[in-house]
Amino acid sequence: MEGKDSRSPLDLTQGVRLEEFPDGEPVLCDGGGESVVVVRRGDELFATGASCSHYGGPLAKGVVVGDTIRCPWHHACFDLRTGLAVGAPAIDPIPAYQLEQMGGLVRLGQPKDSPKSDAPRTSPSSVVIVGAGAAGTACAWMLRQEGYQGPILLIGDEAPGPVDRPNLSKDYLAGEAPEEWLPLRTPESLAQNGIELMLGDEVRACDVPTKRVELASGKQISYGALVLATGASPRRLSIVGAEKALTLRTLADTRAIIAKAEGARQAVVIGASFIGLEVAASLRKRGLEVRVVGPEEVPLARILGPELGRFVQNLHEAQGVRFHLGRSPGRITEEAVVLDDGTTLAAQLVVMGVGVRPRTGLAEAMALEVDDGVVVDENLQTSAANVYAAGDIARLPYGGESIRIEHWVVAERHGQAIARNILGKGRPFREPPFFWSRHYDLSIACVGNLRGWDRVDLHGALDDRRAFAAYRKDGRVRAVAAIGMGKLALRAEELLARGEQEELETLLATAR
Ligand code: FAD
Fold first, then answer.
1. Mutational test site, ligand 1, from 408, 410, 449, max ligand atoms within 8 Å of CB
2. Would you say residue 226 lies in a domain?
3. Are residues 314 and 226 in the same domain?
4. pLDDT the model gives residue 441
5. Distance 98 CA to ligand 1 centre (A)
6. Are residues 145 and 229 in the same domain?
7. CB atoms within 10 A of CB 347
């Protein structure tokens, strides 16, 4: 099903016959110096830029859903008519072009003008967003994209403002990405978009009846709508010497790890889940000896299943990472981590990646409903009117269950959905969770709810980097993990969103 897109781009400057564009399939074209994707949908033709504005993924290898095109790398979603980014992780638009048809041939026309969105149906006096991370920033940006003209205040207690957090444990920590790549939005670009970024102050309290927030500096600010997007903070094991370990959430945390890594020869990473493994890989790239300690027998097995978990473990071992599994740290000293079986692992750097705790303190103080997360409905609205919650703190209904998800793209999509809801343009949020994880040259895309499955079936060839796993509960597919099968992951995501089990089973059966 994948891999048919290796033909050379069609030349739109010479003209391309209409029949060359199969309905609903993106086709890579040469627009005379720039790569363009053309999509035919029935009688309509669309042309957009060919690279995703997030990380430059190849949109011609993506999937068309309705009037949108989705990137195979990290599932960003663009409006085919306008090029606007309508689904995270993309925030910036891609170009959209006119197409001209004459004598049965299609040629590239002029770039389209910047699109104007429909006027908001509702418009609060102001929107105050607490937390300038993934969800908060995406929300602020989408409010403007959707035509909101009122004041937007984005309050964050984390310097230097919104950053591409996933990069902090990957390329940046490995020393392979410069710091200039990290800002999610610069303060300047936010200001140009009329978004006031207030940094270095913390929201201490919110009063729902009077619609006011109070900052640590003593400032009081009123809101029309309030968005809580306060994220999560790293957990620490309560063992002797735990304070000697570094944790990773912010750019400052990564800088601290890099600074310590520079003078270190041996590192111990406590925690063998995604962040721990990514940190291990990055520190290996910096030349440190790295050991990973975790209580599980196989890393990631609880989430991805034992086969995929072991494959990931092997990749890390092939790069020189050594695992101490089925073990817990007993204590941390100045120069070592002592395990529960007495093994002493010398370490000048210890990083603890043992999960996070949602930052729900503010919501609790506001007497909102909180249950391991701020409880929201399908519109991401909390138990208080005009107060929304997004990202790592939000607990929302999904497929008859209640879930709280700690993924980058999910947080951004929450923020975007809230923006539309605030402006009266929303619809219930039913998107399946999506995340990606990278280990050296292996990238895994996961869609759906990976908790609570009772059966996993792995198909394909992991060694060829072309495989997928289907996760079922009571016989129903609830999640899919894909390696080298970007289209499969995108299609599975869409079918999960629509609850189309039969079509999903057919898709998976065809892909085997
Ligand atoms: P955050 O992005 O954490 O933003 C919350 C912000 O609110 C923070 O800046 C915080 O300081 C601020 N804040 C909190 N309380 C207050 C207050 N009272 N006043 C003012 N400001 C406040 N997910 C993936 O899907 N894929 C990945 O590859 C991946 N990699 C990751 C790598 C690292 C190193 C980390 C730490 C996380 C990674 N994640 C990844 C998880 C992802 O980053 C989070 O799920 C996401 O950032 C959650 O977004 P959020 O907006 O809820 O919270």
1. 408
2. yes
3. no
4. 87
5. 39
6. yes
7. 26
The answer, yes or no, to whether any atom of ligand 1 lies below 6 A from the CB of 130, is yes
CATH number of the domain where residue 91 is located: 2.102.10.10
Q: How is residue 4 annotated by DSSP?
A: G
Question: CATH code at 470?
Answer: 3.30.390.30
**Which numbered atom of ligand 1 lies nearest the CA of 436?**
26
Which among 54, 91, 141, 165 is the best mutation to test ligand 1's pocket, defined by most ligand atoms within 8 Å of the CB?
165
Q: Are residues 100 and 151 in the same domain?
A: no
Task: Please list the ranges in the chain whose pLDDT falls under 50.
Answer: 1, 3-5
For residues 472 and 339, what is the distance between their CA atoms, to the nearest angstrom? 36
Task: Domain of residue 459: give its range.
Answer: 441-511
The confidence score (pLDDT) of residue 333 equals 97
Give the pLDDT of residue 117.
84
134 lines ligand 1 (CB under 6 A): yes
Task: For residues 166 and 225, state if they share a domain.
Answer: yes
Q: From CA 482, how far away is CA 470, in angstroms rounded? A: 9
Residues 131 and 147 in one domain: yes
**Which ligand 1 atom lies nearest to the CA of residue 215?**
19
Nearest to residue 447, comparing CAs of 402, 486, 418?
A: 486
Q: Using a 6 Å cutoff on CB, does residue 434 contact ligand 1?
A: no
The total number of structural domains in the chain stands at 4
Atom of ligand 1 nearest to the CA of 234: 36
158 CB within 6 A, ligand 1 = yes
Last residue of one domain, picked from the residues 111, 141, 165: 111
Ligand 1 closest atom vs CA 435? 25
Which residue's CA lies nearest to atom 14 of ligand 1?
230
Give all strands of the β-sheet with 85-87 in edge-to-edge order.
63-65, 68-70, 77-79, 85-87
Let me know if residue 433 belongs to a domain.
no
Q: What is the pLDDT of residues 417-443, one digit of tens each?
A: 999 999 999 999 999 999 999 899 899
Residues 138 and 272 in one domain: no
> What pLDDT is stored for residue 6 in this prediction?
58
Residues 348 and 374 both lie in one domain: no
pLDDT single digits (tens) 142-177: 999 999 999 999 999 998 999 999 999 999 999 999
Q: Is the CB of 389 under 6 A from ligand 1?
A: no
Q: Is residue 3 part of a domain?
A: no
Res 1: pLDDT = 43
Q: Is 249 near ligand 1, meaning CB less than 6 Å away?
A: yes
156 lines ligand 1 (CB under 6 A): yes
CB 229 within 8 A of CB 187: no
> Tell me, what CATH number does 223's domain have?
3.50.50.60
Ligand 1 pocket test: pick from 91, 137, 141, 157 the residue with the most ligand atoms within 8 Å of its Cβ.
Answer: 157
Q: Are 132 and 229 part of one and the same domain?
A: yes
Ligand 1 touching residue 228 (CB < 6 A): no
Look at residue 427 and tell me if it is in a domain: no
Q: Residue 8 has what DSSP assignment?
A: P
Element (H, E) at 330: strand 329-332
Strand ranges (DSSP E) for 12-123? Answer: 16-17, 27-30, 35-41, 44-49, 63-65, 68-70, 77-79, 85-87, 96-102, 105-111
